[in-house]
Amino acid sequence: MPARGNPQRGGPPQSRRGWCFDIKYFIVVKLPHKPVFLLLVLSIAALLFYWHYKTPRLVPAQAVLPLTGLVFAIDPGHGGYDPGAKGYGLVEKDVVLEIGFFLRDYLQQGGARVIMTRDRDKDFLAAAGPKKRLDMSNRLRIVEEEGADLLVSIHANYISSSRWQGSQVFYQEGSSGGKALAECIQAELTRVLKNTNRQAKSGNFFMLRESSMPGVVVEVGFISNPQEAELLGKPKYQMKMAWAIYLGIIAFLTAP
Ligand SMILES: [Zn+2]
């Protein structure tokens, strides 16, 4: 095989053992004999083929997130003119908003779209009317307009005696979806927090009764109990509470 090159133009020296490519007269790449070269090319092609079919496929992250395509409504209770319960330096509207933020983050990380009826200290009294009912109606309108699949309303409990404690989940009486969701969340609150032995319980709640999706009211604990109030004021405990609620939602959605 004749060597390549252009000695008349100062090209690289000719080679007797293989091909020579002349690149700009100063970069010289020597290649082995043609059969060896072909074998090398075929080996590389075989390796590329192997890697292509044996390497695990990268699936788009969205496809493996457990809550992709779902819409959740979080309703941190009270706000604005209505502080909710107060005790031991805590105000219910502030505590439930912080827990709502943590829950929102977990749900979003799970791939869900999350609507919060409020993401700051506000109420929903844009028009005149009986205060509490109007506030609740406007929250409900937000939840319905956004087409939420599940509703989680977050509150904290208060009672005149300081001895009661423990988080508890409520659902609308007669709602089988709400009951199942409440029981799943209650089970995770019990397992994760290890400080409540309360059971999910039915009741009559405006937001749950009037909404079209399964929903629960999570009472995160008693602000009237000094030990529980102290816990509820700590971001670490608020995060733990939100995590338990999140796990309960996952359990509800994956139940057979
Ligand atoms: Zn409340």
In short:
This protein has 256 residues and is α/β, with parallel strands linked by helices. Helices cover 42% and strands 19% of the residues. The protein has eight helices and ten strands.
Using brief descriptors, characterize the structure shown.
Aminopeptidase; 42% helix; 256 residues; single chain; six-stranded mixed sheet; binds zinc ion; disordered N terminus; 2 domains
Task: Please describe the topology of this protein.
Blueprint: E1 19-23, E2 27-31, H1 34-54, H2 61-64, E3 71-76, E4 86-87, E5 90-91, H3 92-109, E6 113-116, H4 131-145, E7 150-157, E8 168-172, H5 176-193, E9 201-203, H6 206-210, E10 215-222, H7 226-232, H8 235-254
Parallel strand pairs: 3-6, 3-7, 7-10, 8-9
Antiparallel strand pairs: 1-2, 4-5, 8-10
Helix pairs in contact: 3-8, 5-8
This protein binds zinc ion.
